[in-house]
Amino acid sequence: MNVLFLTLLDFESVYERNIYTDLLREFLKHGHCVYTISPIERRKHKKTYLVTEEQSVILRLQIGNTQKTNIVEKGISTVLIEPQYILGIKKYFGNITFDLVLYTTPPITLCRAAAYVKQRDRARTYLLLKDIFPQNAVDIGLLSKNGCKGILYRYFRKKEKKLYEISDRIGCMSEANVRYVLKHNPEVGKRNEESKKRTGRGIVEVCPNSIEPIDRSVTQKERREIRNKYHIPLDKTVFVYGGNLGKPQGIDFMLKCLHSQKKNDKVFFLIVGSGTEYSKIRRYMEKYRPDNIALHQWIPKDEYDRVIAACDVGMIFLDHRFTIPNFPSRLLGYMSAKVPVLACTDTATDIGKAITEGGFGWWCGSDSIYKFEKVIQSITCIETKAILEDMKERSFRALCDLYHTKSIYNIIKGN
């Protein structure tokens, strides 16, 4: 089977490790040929080229600048992505007949490219729904359904509906995502019911984030070495946040939570990440100079994994205003490191339910500092410390059972 994967993720090799390349390697293991379009922005000064690795071919397609640029260039470059991808398919993959097209959100702007291959090759199309845009932007105030921003909202909402329309199957990250898509898109719900009657399987299904599980935990000796290297206390419960620091994470609430713990000598907070809100955290650190918080913008990937594993609890934050159910993939990184998880989120997502029912972490709403304080207090008590080791093992077992690329491959294949 020939598989085409459309993405805006910038990667050079299918042997890199992330939720998408891990899944693509699973297809390769089963003897399929995988073709990918991965963009290179013009600012990197590289022309379009091909990367061939055994049964994998990656088209590194030059596109305009969509990041680290002004809003005008970003807008023009975004509009041009679809025709550029179609031209790339025609030029470089014109003699290949595809059986399956995989594509993700974000973005929602690859719809025409997927539709082109579907029509040309009669290929099956599978959408990996990783966010629900534009509603997520409305939730946190970046877009509006009225006024000038409302024009943008209606444009993107139309694109979203078209994306669902051309998708033979829609894989959602969780049950809450499935319910949301069906509730807010009646036409999809109708197709879903018709498909169930005809085939016994709906077009919308749970298809979680997944990775190829690797035990990234560290020994006690390594733990001490890493903590000493990064000036992380050995005698405190260390909470780590790793990943994007942007609007969706509700950084203002995160800072209020951390500030509430400034006199707590039992805890230490480590923040590793970058994003639009990084400077806000840096300003907080410069103003208050807290003794129990450390901030790092960047740590090399291999070293980052070891740092995470040397901590006690991984943290996830989501803005309390979200009405769409996010399910951050950083959860899998914590689970791979055998680190229990504290999720502070909105009530729309079911990630907290997955963590607490799996027995490897805690949840509280991201609208109450008091609730955060109570959870921290319960985690640092002697009774909880005694069961942390058990929670670490549960975390990794849940990763292998629920979020393994083998399972997700079978879902997409229809097994």
Concise summary:
The chain is α/β, with parallel strands linked by helices and 415 residues long. It has helices spanning 19-29, 71-92, 111-121, 135-139, 147-166, 175-184, 186-199, 220-229, 251-259, 278-288, 301-309, 330-336, 351-357, 369-379, 382-385, 388-402, 405-413; strands spanning 2-6, 33-41, 49-53, 56-63, 100-105, 124-129, 169-172, 204-206, 237-244, 267-274, 293-296, 313-317, 341-345, 361-365.
Describe it.
- The protein has 415 residues and is an alpha/beta fold.
- The protein folds into 2 domains: 219 residues, Glycogen Phosphorylase B (Rossmann fold); 183 residues, Glycogen Phosphorylase B (Rossmann fold, 3-Layer(aba) Sandwich), CATH 3.40.50.2000.
- It is built from 17 helices and 14 strands.
- The strands form 2 sheets. An 8-stranded mixed beta sheet has the order 3-4-2-1-5-6-7-8, with helices on both faces. Strands 11-10-9-12-13-14 form a 6-stranded parallel beta sheet, sandwiched between helices.
- The protein is globular, with a radius of gyration of 22 Å.
